[in-house]
Design goal:
Helix content is about 35%, strand content about 20%. It is α/β, with parallel strands linked by helices and about 300 residues long. Helix 1 (about 30-35) links the parallel strand 3 (about 15-20) and strand 4 (about 40-45). The structure holds flavin mononucleotide.
Length: about 300
């Protein structure tokens, strides 16, 4: 059977499939549940300095298995309340990555210190929520902002820092280059794609907030293109995310250059057992293709394979 274990920025993962931030990961019980279901690790809901209620309903619209539109507005209990949830997830045995969001480099750095104190193994910075005013793409939309936030956090904590970037930029790979300059240990790509649905009878957007973010199978080609370009333009390990629901999707991301993967919307359509199915399916697919280890597939679709990556 092919070896699924991967190493990401110093973390040993039993398989490449991480629970993506924001889906299923609010409580310690649900984080632990994703680990029990076979995930290689779990990423928390993005946590801010203070509790946030998020936007009024409707916040989610689902399409027929190919996508999901959401504008949740980053609801979360705030960093004061959250350590107990992380303790529960850790007690269940899960490798936990803490996701945080803030409005300034200083706020990110302070949150990072507090999150690091909970015992998480790494931090993921949400620089990429497309619909939360004052946060997300509004602070992570330019290379200068990404670099400043990543640098502030990297100086504040000793943990590996994953910068999660937006596809809603003219040059997402440029944001990854900025994260690399700022000292990131890895980059996660992508967050949701800015999108809209309209109710023609009500003559207004379906979601209460109006604009939202698209996730699920529909965005897989967008995520793959971002990972591809980031692989060619940086030396950072990449966490591929966006529309992974089958083993083939996962292998596409690995071959585009991702070292690890995140799974979100597929859980809404297929249930949390999708993690076990993805791991089994990827092992079978690698066997079928004569690839001994998941790590051997990383970057394999690039001309010249992994050896062609820029060195600097
Ligand atoms: C309902 C919902 C909530 C999300 N919340 C967060 C969040 O809190 N922080 C974050 O970084 N990404 C968040 N995301 C983005 C996902 O982590 C992921 O990047 C995106 O959905 C693409 O992956 P997928 O197609 O597998 O869902 C959210 C996505 C959805 C659908």
């Amino acid at each position: 059977m092919a070896e699924l274990g991967v190493r990401l920025a110093g973390l040993e993962l039993r398989n490449p499939f991480l629970l993506a931030s924001g889906i299923w990961g609010e409580s310690g019980v649900s984080l632990g549940g994703a680990w029990s279901a076979g995930a290689g690790g779990v990423i928390t809901k993005s946590i801010g300095s203070v509790p946030r209620a998020g936007y009024p309903n409707p916040t989610i619209e689902t399409y027929d298995r190919w996508g999901m539109l959401n504008a949740m507005g980053l609801p979360n209990p705030g960093i004061d309340e959250y350590p107990t949830e992380i303790a529960a997830a850790r007690a269940a045995g899960a490798p936990v990555i803490g996701s945080i969001f803030g409005a300034t480099p200083e706020e990110f750095a302070e949150l990072a210190r507090r999150m690091a104190a909970t015992g998480v193994l790494a931090l993921e910075l949400n620089l990429s929520c497309p619909h939360a005013e004052g946060y997300g793409t509004e602070v992570g939309g330019t290379p200068e902002e990404v670099e400043a936030i990543v640098r502030a956090v990297s100086r504040a904590v000793r943990l590996p820092v994953l910068a999660k970037i937006t596809p809603n930029s003219a040059d997402p790979a440029g944001l990854a280059e900025a994260a690399e300059r700022g000292g990131a240990a890895a980059v996660s790509a992508i967050n949701t794609v800015r999108a809209l649905a309209i109710d023609v009878r009500l003559r207004r957007p379906v979601l209460a907030h109006g604009l939202g973010g698209l996730s699920g199978s529909a965005i897989k080609p967008v995520g793959l293109a971002c990972v591809w370009q980031i692989y060619e333009r940086t030396r950072l390990p990449i966490v591929g995310v966006g529309g992974i629901s089958r083993a083939e999707d996962a292998l596409e991301y690995l071959m585009a250059g991702a070292t690890a993967l995140e799974v979100g919307t597929a859980i809404a359509f297929d249930g949390i057992s999708v993690f076990g199915r993805l791991a089994d399916g990827l092992a079978r697919l690698l066997d079928e293709l004569g690839i001994a280890r998941a790590a051997d597939a990383v970057g394999a679709a690039h001309p010249g394979g992994a050896a062609a990556r820029p060195s600097r």
